[in-house]
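Narrative summary of target 7.
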Amino acid sequence: MPLLAGCAARFECEPVNFPVEGHVVGPWVVVRFASSDGVMITVGNQSFPGSPHTAIIKSFEYGTSNGHKATIEIVDEEGGAFNKFVDKINKCIERTTADTVLQCQWGWIKDFCRGGPQVDPSPIVTLLPLNIDVAFSSGIVKYTITAVDGMQTVFTARENETVGTDSNPMPLKQAIQSFMNDREPRFITAFYRKNPDGSLSTWNFQPDPSQAWKCDNQNKLACVQKWIEPFKTDGNKGIMPTVDNTAAGGLLLAGPAGYTPTVIFWEDLMPGCAESKACAHTLGTFIVNGGKFSNVISFNPNINWPAAFGKMSRGGNSGAAVTGRTQSQVRRCRVQGGPTSTAGVQQSIAVTDQARNTFGEDAAAQQAEGQNAHDRANSVNTEGLQPINAELKIQGNPSPPFVDLKLIVGTTCAIVVINPFRLVGGGTAGFCEWLAEPQCNEVLSNKSWMVKGVSHSIKEGSYVTTLNLFLATPGVDIDFDQPLGGPGSGSTFQLNNTC
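Modeled conformation, tokenized:
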């Protein structure tokens, strides 16, 4: 049931987000190792049971914008907890999976005058402790632990194996699954698309190639991306990899949770050239300048069109090896200036053996289409390449849609930006008048803000969640004649001075 009225109603997606309820509310954090030694650090009086009241979490940050990363600041009076953390940090790439044991959970504890306390926990996040910064001062040990997902160690290793042979070729999906779980760091793999109702289903390659797959002394992720490059999904879309390191369940205080490191290869989550993302997989509506009934702390947008031209690739090759034909890069949408526009960066088309073996004379064209499709799918993770992006800070929200990357990817949110105003009396029929027109900011109010990352920060009794957002932009992400955010976004703002 719609709750908003006036111009705000045009941009509403259910649910409308309100502040945290409770007569007394406070954030909490628990960090522990999923092992038998029972090391647990919290923000409370029972922190570090091995030596109570001697170590406590001072601040905690966790984010998913570019991989998973947590920063935990601990104050330790005796150094016992410090010794445990030093013992647990990763010291060998062959132990990446075994050392991925640092479990984090956080949330709100709320108390009501009637009904007693209530705990709102986040999903459990499991990370690899990688780095410790230490400071000794005033008779205490203060140290900051940085923990990441296991994929971050991939970039320090090189692979030079071949999966499958010419006489015994292997299907690409099977090759990826075998290769990712063959040696450290190990990962299970999944191949998901997010359906309109938010459910997940499995996609397949089209065509589904079977060949020998070489690594050429690259890291594990780069090998797989090279194999995938000429091929698209059966939905004719590109592919974006992410790491899943969350587990649903009860409180971490009750015991360790199961953890399976998984790399998910997502079918492109960006909107199509004329596709509506309005209220699709939505986190609901956030109201900027909404007063005490809004959970928004701040909203900081940035608008920079030329920066986004960097993801509009140009270029080609001088001649395919099989046919000698030249091949130019292709663009999937009707972008600014059309196919002859000079906007973009140089990107060559290096045709792989797998593309030649699968597509023959059409290899260069298929390689170009694949490159473009994968670039588009992964552009959501590239900082500074969106014409309109924003940082939205809200009162902390530990619920799964704000923590679990399986739920975060491909989500949108609606933002209503109410222009600053003042009210005076003497209006029509004796009512007060709104002295700002329009009441809603027509450029930034939109149903189709896409979420590219979420971070959580708890320190000094406060808990803030930050959403990193962007708007699909006509002429860059979607067709040039679409509104900001795409069809159904609620935007009526007319863009001028575009190509």
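The first helix runs from residue 80 to 88.
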